[in-house]
């Protein structure tokens, strides 16, 4: 039964079939006895990096969110979803929130990352915007710091970010974060660090 799409990183799987650059992997419960899935959406690679680190650390299946259907998730006991922040929303999180009633008995963790530094008030704001009260009770939420690389953005995202740049440039007084943001348009930043996944790994293994 070849019914899931995985990434090239899945070296621990025995049965692999190459298909147009992705591997179609046979479900092999011996290779993933804990039935853990790490699902991610990533526009410029920052979330992908964290998702790969997490999947490797816990021997999980790594799935691309945009290619994953809700029913694919029913196979797993633990679901870890990751996505970048775009105007405060977590990229592709609807896969989990829209199907929450079918997934709510599973162990679920959501992580997101943005260009901004991680602070308690920002974590709270993002959590409240993306998960309702019931979801917040059962979904463990994590925020990590990603990065920003203007050159890798889609034309549409470049337009959006240029609008933000104009807005920032019109401001008389900029905060340190805003100055950092403006500088990152010409100097890409990458704050990803494998150590940051430790609380997520701890939660998965609890
Ligand atoms: C159009 C746009 C909107 C963004 N909005 C936010 C935001 O609201 N908060 C934030 O911290 N970062 C924001 N970012 C930065 C991304 O979240 C950051 O680059 C992240 O690391 C992207 O991860 P990804 O490449 O895995 O998608 C935005 C970036 C773009 C291009």
* CATH class designation of the largest domain: Alpha Beta
Query: Into which percentage range does the β-strand content fall?
Result: 15-25%
CATH topology of the largest domain: Rossmann fold
Gap between N and C termini: 31 Å
The total domain count is: 2
CATH superfamily of the largest domain: Flavodoxin domain
Total number of beta strands: 11
Q: What portion of residues is helical?
A: 25-40%
Nearest-angstrom radius of gyration? 18 Å
**What structural class is derived from the secondary structure elements?**
alpha/beta
Summarize the main sheet.
6 strands, mixed
* Helix and strand run: EEEEHEHEEHHEHHEEHHEH
Q: How many DSSP helices?
A: 9
CATH architecture assignment of the largest domain? 3-Layer(aba) Sandwich
Q: Quick check: average pLDDT?
A: 86
Q: Bound compounds, please?
A: flavin mononucleotide
Overall 3D geometry? Answer: elongated
Ranges with pLDDT <50 over ≥5 residues?
1-28
